[in-house]
Amino acid sequence: MVAAAQPGSPTHGDTRWDQALERVVAGGGLRLAAQPIIDVARADIAGHELLARFEGPPAQSPDVWFAAARHRGRDAELTVRVLAELHRLRAVGQPGFCTVNVEPHLLLDAAVLEALLGAGRLTGVVVELTEHVEAADDRALDAALDAVREAGGLVAMDDAGTGYAGLAQMLRIRPDIVKLDRGLVAGLDLDPVKRTAVRLVGELAGEIDAWLLAEGVETRGELAEVVRLGVPLVQGWAVGRPADGWSVLDPGTRAFIAAENGRLGFAENVVALVRPAAVRSGRAPAGPWEPGTVLLDDDGRPRAVVVVDPAGVTHRVPALTVAPSSAPDEVLRRALARPAAWHAAPVVCTDSRGVVLGVLEIRDLVERVVHPGRTAPSPGHAARLSV
């Protein structure tokens, strides 16, 4: 038995979809929104990803529109329309580079390749290969990518780190930008295994002379972590949402990134490892509090840190405080000199006035002591992304 197509699916309402696609291909109902991509080292916008937005009906996401076009054999025509809009935007001014999504199999289509290359040099254009449909001919795809590069364009690959197939494709294509999969970025600040995975992908990106880009960064915690890891390019709601026209980086976000960068200038002491922490005064209502919360006494000095043991029981561990200029190995030695039950409790970092700057996780201290020379993922050559 074949299930009926659902409303909104690419196969539902054939006449409606046919009319909608015809309208867009003919030149109406499509615009490109621009989402900023941030250069972490400069705390400024390096470029934008251009994202297709369709005016309904049907009122569906871009993925559904492209699936509908692919179902009807019109995905090449739709991509040609997107590339025409790309060139129109470039003609009226383009701050930094811009990326545009193209499915690999469509680069083998003569009309798509002509639409991409026929408008002149591609300086500042990054062709981002999506993985909805694989290219059937690797040699033909390589030739198309060579043509893009010969015209001055760059190549990006998304969803890096998601499996062997993606890894093999990365090694063969040797992209200029490697985009971390959102699954590795989500909750990165809370998951040491994900941090290790990001480092590994970053090291591989450095070996093939590519920039690493973390997309889907949605929280300040994730943003702080990618900065801490040295990921050179960041994209996501934490730094800017898609909008009509080119963006300007929010001053508060710029200051946040600059502050995180400033911490990294002190690799020989623990200030580079300080993580944000919730702080509660002695007069605050009784918990529950999140793990890592710093509790203050009546004079505003740290007295305890909240931890949760493997059984899920919350404890208040007496606060061990250190200065931001302390050496990581010395702080680790002091932390491990505590009773064994307290070894994993965060250490509180305070300034000269006793004001809490944040906490130091034991895992970060161990990593810094064990790998003192380890740097973040290689950013490649910055000049290659300049316009």
Write a short abstract of this structure.
It comes from Cellulomonas fimi. This is EAL domain-containing protein. The protein is an alpha/beta fold and about 375 residues long.
Description:
This protein has 12 helices and 15 strands. The protein is α/β, with parallel strands linked by helices and 387 residues long. It has 2 domains: 14-264, EAL domain (TIM Barrel, Alpha-Beta Barrel); 272-368, CBS-domain, CATH 3.10.580. The strands form 3 sheets. The protein has an 8-stranded mixed β-barrel with strand order 1-2-3-4-5-6-7-8, surrounded by 4 helices. Strands 9-10-11-12 form a 4-stranded mixed sheet, with no helix packed on it. Helix 2 crosses helix 3, helix 3 (75-91) runs parallel beside helix 4 and helix 9 (220-229) runs parallel beside helix 10 (251-264). The protein is elongated and about 70 Å long. It starts with 13 loop residues before the first helix and ends in a 17-residue tail after the last helix. 36% of the residues are buried. Residues 14-256 form the EAL domain.
Helix content: 25-40%
The first-to-last residue Cα distance is: 55 Å
**CATH class term of the largest domain:** Alpha Beta
Low-confidence stretches: 1-7, 375-387
Largest sheet: spatial strand order: 1-2-3-4-5-6-7-8
**Radius of gyration, taken over Cα atoms and rounded to an integer in Å:** 25 Å
CATH superfamily of the largest domain: EAL domain
Beta-strand proportion: 15-25%
Residue-averaged pLDDT: 84
Explain the layout of strands and helices.
Layout lengths: L13 H12 L4 E10 L4 E11 L7 H10 L3 H17 L5 E6 L7 H8 L7 E5 L8 H13 L3 E7 L3 H10 L3 E4 L1 H4 L6 H16 L3 E4 L5 H10 L3 E3 L15 H14 L14 E2 L13 E3 L5 E7 L5 E5 L2 E2 L5 H9 L10 E4 L5 E5 L1 H9 L17
Parallel strand pairs: 2-3, 3-4, 4-5, 5-6, 6-7, 7-8, 9-10, 13-14
Antiparallel strand pairs: 1-2, 1-8, 10-11, 11-12, 14-15
Helix pairs in contact: 2-3, 3-4, 9-10, 11-12
